Amino acid sequence: MKELPPDHPRLSRIHLRKELLEQQGLNDRAIARLVRNGTLVKVRRGAYLDAGAWDLLDADSRHAVLARAVVRQAKTDLVISHVSALPDWEAPTWGMPLDVVQVTRPDTKAGRREAGVRQHRGRLLDGDVVERNGVLLSSPERVMVELTTMVGVEPCLVAWNYFLHKRLTTLERVDARYRALSADRGTAMDHWPDTLTTDLLLRLADRRCESVGEVRCLFLLWRQHLPMPVPQYEVRDRTGRVIARVDFAWPEYGVFLEFDGLAKYQRLLREGESAADAVVREKLREQEICELTGWRCIRLIWSDLARPEQVGLRIRRLLFATGRAA
Question: By the 8 A CB rule, do 81 and 120 touch?
Answer without folding.
Answer: yes
